[in-house]
Amino acid sequence: MKKNKKETIKSIILVLLVISSLVLSYIITTYQPDYEIFTRRLGQKITVSGDAGLLNFMTPDSMVKTEAGVREEAIVPNSITKVATVEAIKNKKVLKDILLEISKTESTESRIRNRNVEELTSNNAEKLTINYSVALDSALVKPLFFSEETSNVSLEFDTIVFLKDKPNTIYLYKKDDKNYLQINLKENIYDKIADKFNQNKQEYAKYSLNNKFIYLKEKIDDKNIDEYSAEEVNLTKLAKDIFEKKDNLKVSSDNEVTDGYAILKAQGSRIIYTNPSNEGGKEVGATTAITNAVDFLELGYANDINYQITNSVDGITIFQETYKESIVFNKEGHADIIAEDNSNGIYRLTSPKKITKTYLSSREVGTYDVERTEYVINYLYKYINLTKVNDIVLGYEKTYNKDRNSCSYTPTWYIKYNDRYISFKKLKESIDKGVQL
Which residue has the higher pLDDT, 368 or 272? Predict the structure, then answer.
């Protein structure tokens, strides 16, 4: 009897040891620390002029204020629904200036926290949010927020948040991800950003579109067609900036420049860069392709034109020219940069041959030339499969006048349909005719 009791006790102890071992193994394999040190400030950032060059290709989509006590509205699936009226900024130059203001600050410490950012952003405190159209790698913004001595640890983000009750901190995160990057600063950045915001804010309607929010003006009575002089890009100067072998440039009779490896040439309305030695590499992810493209563009493509990244897929990144509060489109290629990248690097990049220079004139658009916001929304809701609609913008159509050597910007609605932007007029025309796009 005693022997059986002893064996029973041994069995119980053995079972408890096995359970303890399993629990310990689970804790070890699933444990995530509250945060890890991402970088500490060791030196000065690059100059403001260098920051400006980087920001030429990183223009945000919008900046929005959330008042204290106001909770984020819920997404309405497979629909386009107005959920609020908010104060926001979409002017691209102002957004760039705000990021430049941030770049002047110095950080004391930066951490990647393995927590849901909603723990911070849903506390009903006043906040300012910068939104990007695509996800970026935090390594891309090292020159803006960190010193050059930072580590290679990175985090994808499409949102930057400033909280009034934490005025010395910036938060970067990707919507729906559980991690966020926290940057602690030496000084109060919130008040500076809030001042710039209050000076430039406008009223926008906030719409839930599928799995995102978009911001549209409800009144569009103050639109003009603006004209600017145009200037051709200096091909030789660009080649000297972007080619590695700068002392071995050769210019052919048909104005083609090469360093023996890569080729730069003008063709139609575009400048085409090709590097055959980079072809054949493995496909890279979207954030890697974006980072590589921006790094390359910084070598010599930065000028007075700002661009917003609108898409990156299969190693192809599209940068759309920005104007005032929106993005610009042109059928002949005067308004976008397209970079093609793989594991070997950029192997092809096309950009506009002519760029906008000096302001010439403006004239008001006709009363019925630009559709009302309500009309566009109602038409899409009634006739379009909204699961295929990724974005709606009142952008600008850019047209080049050869006789005047000028470019005009005309307000025009564009719909991102099946991941590509198409004018609302063309989309409506196709739908009305029963043509599938």
Answer: 272
